[in-house]
Structures are given as C-alpha cells and as structure tokens.
Amino acid sequence: MPASADQALPVVRVGEIKCEESTQRWLVEGLWGARSVGVIGGAPKCAKTWLGLDMALSVATGTACLGKYAVPESGPVRQRIEGMARHRGLEFSQVEIHVITAPVLRLDRDPDRARLWETTRGLRPKLLLLDPLVRLHGIDENNAGEVAQLLAYFRWLQRQLDLSVLLVHHTRKSAAGGVAAGQGLRGSSDIHAFGDSNLYLRRSREHLILSSEHRAAPAAASVSLELVVANPQTIHLEVIGELRDGSAKLAMDGKQRSLEERVLDLLGQGATVTRAKLRDSLGVKNERLGEALEVLERTGRLRRTPAGWQRRNGSIEGGRSRSL
Fold first, then answer.
1. In the chain, what are the domains?
2. What are the angstrom distances between the C-alpha of 193 and each of 147, 188, 237?
C-alpha cells in the first residue's frame, strides 16, 4: 500500500551529518573507554575483583590505575577497598565511592532495574561496577535471548546516564588465555560481543597476565600483575612488567624478577607467613616454591619458624627488594 508524503522517512544530505569525534576518549587510559560497557573476565581467583576495585578507586580519586594507567577525569563510582586507598596515601573517608548494600539485587526484574536506575541517576557516577554478574540475575547465561535483554538494560543505563558499566564475569574452566580470552567467557557469546572495552585476567606460571581489547582503539600492551600482600594494611595490585609482542617474557629493564625476590617482598618486615599462604599468594607449584625457599634459607635471607617463614635482617639483592 503506498505511503502518504507525511509518512516518508526523514533524510539529510550526507555532508550535513555531524561527525562525532573520532579520537577515543578514555575513562582509564588504555584500559577502559569513557562511557563504555564491557567485562572483566577471567578464571576464579585471578584477581578480577581486585582489578575492578582498583579501577573504581582510580576513577573516584583521579589516581593512576595499577600505578600505571592515568585517569583523565575523576568522578564518583561504587565499591570499596580501604587498603588500596591507604597504599596511595588517600584519606579514605573522603573518597567518593558508594556501595549498594541491598542484600539481593536481581537486574533481570523490572522492580530492581528501577531501583538501580534511581540510585544511579541520583549519584551520577562515572563508573558502575557490578561484581560478580552471576549474582545479579536469575537468567540462563547460555540463553542468548535472555542474556541480550539483560545486556540491553546495561546499555540503556550507559546511554541514559553517560557512564561506564563494568561487569565482572568468569571464564569457562577450559577457556584459552591471552587476547582471545573473550571467546572463553562463560555463557552466551553475546557477553563478549557486548563490550566496548573488555579486560581479561589469566595465570601464566606464577604471574597474572592482564590483556585488553577495545571496539574503537588498539589494545594496550599486555602486562604482568602481582597482588602485593607484604603489608596486610595496604594490599594492592601492581604492574611488574610489560609483555612485548605477545611474548611471555617480561620487560622490566631487561630483567625478570626472580621467584626468590617475590618471596622476599611478600615477607615484609616482621611478617611470618606459612608455606601454604606463600604458595597461594604467588600462584606457584609447591615444588618450585620449595626450591626458592631452600635457596633463600641457605643464603641466610630467610629463616623457618614453627609459625612459618620470616625474613632475616640484612641487604636483599634485586632492584625492587628492600633492606630491613
């Protein structure tokens, strides 16, 4: 049936279309685009929450994420980690971070979607961190239709409130690591396709490897991370090296930190740590840790006590080690 003139679709000349700025704008330079949605993905115990919190604190305070990635413009976010703030010398009570304390939040349901909308609209954050995604819905993550509806809500929030939405999500147990890790995210492939910016964490021997991908910009160089736990009051993630050309070799002034140096860093002044705790913190095999402890004990840098391992007083070799 022919349409009347007033039903015709609106058109403009192509030269009259206003071009959007093509330069990528960053919430966290190299890691997360401004007003982007996406995922932090990785296997369990790969520090996904630590990374999300580090980003949240950085956006809230304008301090560099992981001590490396600048935050061009700060603004309030949600989540909390006091030790990270203390490590950066920040007054925690002044940090603009808010935590949603509702015991249950089901974002596949309209009532809770409305509650999150009103909360977010009132606070106007730069970043909304949802961790973990699996606890915030009751859908079948393998059902593409159900997943698409949930992700559409997050995209709607992002567009309506001009913010970034960061979902913390697991990879499948059999997922491959590296830059292709998005293909290994648990559930529907829509979760991977959804992201404007995505970050992936995986373990490689004793290291955590962080890689990224962006819809509108090249990926940042992958880096190796370490969860620094020497002082329980200032636990934080730290970049310890950069991966060049996809290689597993760390670029740390041409030298990779040894396992012995990392053990010494974990055993801060006066600290006593069990072998099991060291193994879990470093993510290494028990046999390899045993060899490192034997070397450190033989060279007089560690001593074994009934309660665990301690550092001895004296100079420690290695550029990042400390003297007691």
1. 26-250 (3.40.50.300), 259-311 (1.10.10.10)
2. 11, 9, 27
